[in-house]
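Backbone-to-sequence.
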Protein backbone atom coordinates (compact mmCIF):
# COMPACT_ATOMS: atom_id res chain seq x y z
CA UNK A 1 0.00 0.00 0.00
CA UNK A 2 1.20 3.48 -0.87
CA UNK A 3 0.98 6.69 1.09
CA UNK A 4 -1.74 8.69 -0.67
CA UNK A 5 0.46 11.79 -0.80
CA UNK A 6 3.09 9.96 -2.83
CA UNK A 7 0.52 9.38 -5.59
CA UNK A 8 -0.94 12.85 -5.63
CA UNK A 9 -0.43 13.44 -9.34
CA UNK A 10 -2.73 10.52 -10.10
CA UNK A 11 -5.22 11.58 -7.41
CA UNK A 12 -5.33 15.18 -8.64
CA UNK A 13 -6.03 13.95 -12.15
CA UNK A 14 -8.98 11.88 -10.91
CA UNK A 15 -10.33 14.90 -9.02
CA UNK A 16 -10.09 17.01 -12.17
CA UNK A 17 -11.96 14.40 -14.26
CA UNK A 18 -14.73 13.75 -11.74
CA UNK A 19 -18.18 15.17 -12.33
CA UNK A 20 -18.65 15.62 -8.58
CA UNK A 21 -16.69 14.98 -5.41
CA UNK A 22 -17.66 13.35 -2.11
CA UNK A 23 -15.43 13.17 0.97
CA UNK A 24 -16.45 10.74 3.73
CA UNK A 25 -14.47 10.13 6.90
CA UNK A 26 -14.53 8.43 10.25
CA UNK A 27 -14.17 10.77 13.24
CA UNK A 28 -12.06 9.31 16.08
CA UNK A 29 -8.53 8.41 15.01
CA UNK A 30 -9.06 9.90 11.56
CA UNK A 31 -10.22 13.52 11.76
CA UNK A 32 -9.65 13.82 15.50
CA UNK A 33 -6.98 12.16 17.67
CA UNK A 34 -8.25 9.33 19.83
CA UNK A 35 -8.81 10.49 23.41
CA UNK A 36 -8.44 8.41 26.57
CA UNK A 37 -12.13 8.96 27.28
CA UNK A 38 -14.69 9.26 24.44
CA UNK A 39 -16.21 12.47 25.84
CA UNK A 40 -12.80 14.22 25.65
CA UNK A 41 -12.38 13.93 21.87
CA UNK A 42 -12.46 17.21 19.97
CA UNK A 43 -12.37 18.09 16.29
CA UNK A 44 -9.31 20.33 15.74
CA UNK A 45 -10.19 23.84 14.58
CA UNK A 46 -8.05 23.57 11.44
CA UNK A 47 -9.87 20.36 10.43
CA UNK A 48 -13.26 22.05 10.89
CA UNK A 49 -12.00 24.97 8.80
CA UNK A 50 -10.88 22.82 5.88
CA UNK A 51 -14.18 20.91 5.96
CA UNK A 52 -15.91 24.25 5.66
CA UNK A 53 -13.75 25.16 2.68
CA UNK A 54 -14.59 21.85 1.01
CA UNK A 55 -18.29 22.48 1.52
CA UNK A 56 -17.85 25.93 -0.04
CA UNK A 57 -16.52 24.38 -3.27
CA UNK A 58 -19.57 22.11 -3.55
CA UNK A 59 -18.02 18.95 -2.18
CA UNK A 60 -20.44 16.48 -0.61
CA UNK A 61 -19.23 15.81 2.94
CA UNK A 62 -20.07 13.04 5.37
CA UNK A 63 -18.82 11.95 8.79
CA UNK A 64 -19.27 8.21 9.39
CA UNK A 65 -18.73 7.18 12.99
CA UNK A 66 -19.43 4.75 15.77
CA UNK A 67 -20.50 7.66 17.96
CA UNK A 68 -24.18 8.34 18.45
CA UNK A 69 -25.67 10.60 15.80
CA UNK A 70 -26.42 13.54 18.10
CA UNK A 71 -23.02 13.38 19.78
CA UNK A 72 -21.27 13.27 16.41
CA UNK A 73 -23.22 16.19 14.92
CA UNK A 74 -22.58 18.28 18.03
CA UNK A 75 -18.82 17.68 17.92
CA UNK A 76 -18.49 18.44 14.20
CA UNK A 77 -20.97 21.30 14.07
CA UNK A 78 -21.27 21.72 10.29
CA UNK A 79 -24.76 22.05 8.84
CA UNK A 80 -25.89 20.54 5.56
CA UNK A 81 -23.63 17.48 5.49
CA UNK A 82 -24.19 13.75 5.99
CA UNK A 83 -23.83 12.34 9.49
CA UNK A 84 -23.75 8.59 10.10
CA UNK A 85 -23.88 7.49 13.74
CA UNK A 86 -23.57 4.15 15.51
CA UNK A 87 -21.91 2.43 12.55
CA UNK A 88 -24.87 3.04 10.24
CA UNK A 89 -27.80 2.51 12.61
CA UNK A 90 -28.46 6.27 12.47
CA UNK A 91 -28.21 8.59 9.45
CA UNK A 92 -28.84 12.32 9.15
CA UNK A 93 -29.30 13.56 5.61
CA UNK A 94 -27.97 16.98 4.55
CA UNK A 95 -31.61 18.13 4.60
CA UNK A 96 -31.75 17.41 8.33
CA UNK A 97 -33.94 14.29 8.00
CA UNK A 98 -33.01 11.55 10.46
CA UNK A 99 -33.38 7.80 9.93
CA UNK A 100 -32.85 5.28 12.69
CA UNK A 101 -32.72 1.56 12.01
CA UNK A 102 -33.57 0.20 15.46
CA UNK A 103 -36.46 0.18 17.93
CA UNK A 104 -36.89 1.61 21.41
CA UNK A 105 -37.03 -1.95 22.78
CA UNK A 106 -33.46 -2.44 21.53
CA UNK A 107 -32.32 0.54 23.61
CA UNK A 108 -34.01 -0.80 26.73
CA UNK A 109 -32.47 -4.22 26.19
CA UNK A 110 -28.95 -2.79 25.93
CA UNK A 111 -29.58 -0.71 29.03
CA UNK A 112 -30.22 -3.92 30.96
CA UNK A 113 -27.17 -5.52 29.37
CA UNK A 114 -25.07 -2.60 30.55
CA UNK A 115 -25.98 -3.57 34.09
CA UNK A 116 -24.73 -7.10 33.50
CA UNK A 117 -21.44 -5.81 32.13
CA UNK A 118 -21.01 -3.38 35.01
CA UNK A 119 -21.56 -6.12 37.58
CA UNK A 120 -19.19 -8.56 35.85
CA UNK A 121 -16.41 -5.96 35.46
CA UNK A 122 -16.82 -4.17 38.77
CA UNK A 123 -13.40 -5.34 39.93
CA UNK A 124 -11.50 -4.05 36.87
CA UNK A 125 -10.54 -0.37 37.26
CA UNK A 126 -10.59 1.83 34.17
CA UNK A 127 -13.48 0.25 32.24
CA UNK A 128 -15.84 2.82 30.71
CA UNK A 129 -19.37 1.93 29.56
CA UNK A 130 -20.96 4.03 26.83
CA UNK A 131 -24.61 3.34 25.99
CA UNK A 132 -25.25 4.90 22.57
CA UNK A 133 -28.75 3.63 21.82
CA UNK A 134 -28.44 0.60 19.51
CA UNK A 135 -24.81 0.09 20.55
CA UNK A 136 -23.24 -0.47 23.96
CA UNK A 137 -19.50 0.19 24.02
CA UNK A 138 -17.05 -1.13 26.62
CA UNK A 139 -13.88 0.97 26.51
CA UNK A 140 -10.74 -0.44 28.12
CA UNK A 141 -8.04 2.03 27.04
CA UNK A 142 -7.56 3.10 30.67
CA UNK A 143 -7.38 -0.48 31.98
CA UNK A 144 -3.95 -1.82 32.95
CA UNK A 145 -2.47 -3.58 29.94
CA UNK A 146 -2.10 -6.86 31.84
CA UNK A 147 -5.88 -6.93 32.47
CA UNK A 148 -7.17 -5.98 29.02
CA UNK A 149 -7.51 -9.59 27.93
CA UNK A 150 -9.61 -10.16 31.05
CA UNK A 151 -11.98 -7.40 29.92
CA UNK A 152 -12.40 -9.02 26.51
CA UNK A 153 -12.98 -12.47 28.01
CA UNK A 154 -15.53 -11.11 30.46
CA UNK A 155 -17.28 -9.18 27.68
CA UNK A 156 -17.58 -12.35 25.60
CA UNK A 157 -18.82 -14.36 28.57
CA UNK A 158 -21.57 -11.85 29.40
CA UNK A 159 -22.73 -11.40 25.84
CA UNK A 160 -22.76 -15.09 24.85
CA UNK A 161 -26.29 -15.87 26.16
CA UNK A 162 -27.64 -12.90 24.16
CA UNK A 163 -26.32 -13.72 20.67
CA UNK A 164 -29.83 -13.96 19.25
CA UNK A 165 -30.38 -10.32 20.12
CA UNK A 166 -26.94 -8.71 19.78
CA UNK A 167 -23.68 -9.09 17.86
CA UNK A 168 -20.09 -8.16 18.69
CA UNK A 169 -18.06 -5.35 17.17
CA UNK A 170 -14.46 -4.39 17.93
CA UNK A 171 -12.51 -1.15 17.56
CA UNK A 172 -9.33 0.22 19.05
CA UNK A 173 -9.42 -0.89 22.70
CA UNK A 174 -13.22 -1.02 22.66
CA UNK A 175 -15.66 -3.92 22.43
CA UNK A 176 -19.25 -3.29 21.40
CA UNK A 177 -22.58 -5.04 21.75
CA UNK A 178 -24.76 -4.00 18.80
CA UNK A 179 -28.39 -4.87 18.19
CA UNK A 180 -28.53 -7.61 15.62
CA UNK A 181 -29.13 -6.30 12.10
CA UNK A 182 -27.55 -5.58 8.76
CA UNK A 183 -26.44 -2.00 9.42
CA UNK A 184 -22.78 -1.08 9.19
CA UNK A 185 -20.69 1.73 7.79
CA UNK A 186 -20.78 0.12 4.36
CA UNK A 187 -24.59 0.07 4.18
CA UNK A 188 -24.60 3.75 5.16
CA UNK A 189 -22.05 4.64 2.49
CA UNK A 190 -24.20 2.86 -0.11
CA UNK A 191 -27.18 4.98 0.93
CA UNK A 192 -25.06 8.10 0.47
CA UNK A 193 -23.83 6.80 -2.90
CA UNK A 194 -27.40 6.35 -4.08
CA UNK A 195 -27.98 10.09 -3.61
CA UNK A 196 -24.90 11.17 -5.59
CA UNK A 197 -24.74 11.99 -9.31
CA UNK A 198 -23.06 9.55 -11.68
CA UNK A 199 -19.28 9.78 -11.94
CA UNK A 200 -18.88 11.17 -8.43
CA UNK A 201 -15.42 10.49 -7.04
CA UNK A 202 -15.71 9.32 -3.42
CA UNK A 203 -12.94 9.47 -0.82
CA UNK A 204 -13.32 7.43 2.35
CA UNK A 205 -10.90 7.85 5.28
CA UNK A 206 -11.00 5.42 8.21
CA UNK A 207 -8.71 4.01 10.86
CA UNK A 208 -10.01 0.72 12.24
CA UNK A 209 -11.82 -2.55 11.60
CA UNK A 210 -15.26 -0.89 11.65
CA UNK A 211 -14.33 0.98 8.46
CA UNK A 212 -13.69 -2.15 6.38
CA UNK A 213 -17.30 -2.36 5.20
CA UNK A 214 -17.06 1.26 4.03
CA UNK A 215 -13.85 0.55 2.12
CA UNK A 216 -15.65 -2.28 0.35
CA UNK A 217 -18.55 0.06 -0.45
CA UNK A 218 -16.29 2.48 -2.33
CA UNK A 219 -14.08 -0.13 -4.02
CA UNK A 220 -14.01 0.45 -7.76
CA UNK A 221 -15.82 3.80 -7.59
CA UNK A 222 -13.72 5.74 -5.12
CA UNK A 223 -10.55 5.97 -3.07
CA UNK A 224 -10.24 4.23 0.27
CA UNK A 225 -7.58 5.47 2.69
CA UNK A 226 -6.52 3.62 5.84
CA UNK A 227 -5.23 5.87 8.61
CA UNK A 228 -2.59 4.37 10.88
CA UNK A 229 -0.86 1.01 10.46
CA UNK A 230 -2.23 -0.41 7.17
CA UNK A 231 -4.15 -3.68 7.23
CA UNK A 232 -4.62 -3.96 3.47
CA UNK A 233 -8.32 -3.12 3.22
CA UNK A 234 -8.00 0.16 1.29
CA UNK A 235 -6.25 1.58 -1.75
CA UNK A 236 -3.91 3.91 0.09
CA UNK A 237 -2.64 4.71 3.56
CA UNK A 238 -1.87 7.74 5.73
CA UNK A 239 -0.02 7.61 9.06
CA UNK A 240 -2.20 9.80 11.31
CA UNK A 241 -4.87 12.53 11.56
CA UNK A 242 -2.42 15.37 10.75
CA UNK A 243 -1.72 13.62 7.43
CA UNK A 244 -5.49 13.43 6.80
CA UNK A 245 -5.68 17.18 7.37
CA UNK A 246 -2.87 17.71 4.85
CA UNK A 247 -4.71 15.66 2.23
CA UNK A 248 -8.03 17.44 2.88
CA UNK A 249 -6.24 20.74 2.31
CA UNK A 250 -4.86 19.41 -0.98
CA UNK A 251 -8.32 18.28 -2.07
CA UNK A 252 -9.78 21.71 -1.24
CA UNK A 253 -6.99 23.42 -3.17
CA UNK A 254 -7.37 21.21 -6.23
CA UNK A 255 -11.15 21.39 -6.09
CA UNK A 256 -10.98 25.17 -6.37
Amino acid sequence: MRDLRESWGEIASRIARARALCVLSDFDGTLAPIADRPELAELPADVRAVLGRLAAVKTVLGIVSGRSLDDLARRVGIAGIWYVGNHGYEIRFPSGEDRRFYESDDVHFLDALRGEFAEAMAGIPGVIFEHKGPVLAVHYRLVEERRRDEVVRTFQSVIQPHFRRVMIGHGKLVAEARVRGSCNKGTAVRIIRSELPARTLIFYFGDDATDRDAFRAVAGVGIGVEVGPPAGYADYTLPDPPAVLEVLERIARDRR
